[in-house]
Amino acid sequence: MKVFLVATEESGDRLGAALMRALKAKLGSTVEFRGVGGYEMAAEGLPSLFRIDDLAIVGISGIAQALPMILSRIRETVHAALQERPDVMVIIDSPDFTHRVARRVRKANPRIPIVNYVSPSVWAWRPGRAKAMRRYVDHVLALLPFEPKVHQELGGPPCTYVGHPLVEQIDELRPNKAEAEQRNNGTPLLLVLPGSRKNEIRRLIEPFGRAVERLAKTVWPLDIVIPTTPHLQDTVIRETAYWPLRPKIVVKREDRRSAFRQARAALAKSGTVTLELGISGVPMITAYKVSGLEAVIARRLIRVPSVILTNLVLGENAVPEFIQTDCTPEKLSAALTPLLRDSPERRNQLAALARLDDLMEIGTAQPARRAADIVEQVAIKSRLPA
Question: What's the order of all strands across the beta sheet hosting 139-142?
Answer without folding.
Answer: 32-36, 2-7, 88-92, 114-117, 139-142, 159-161
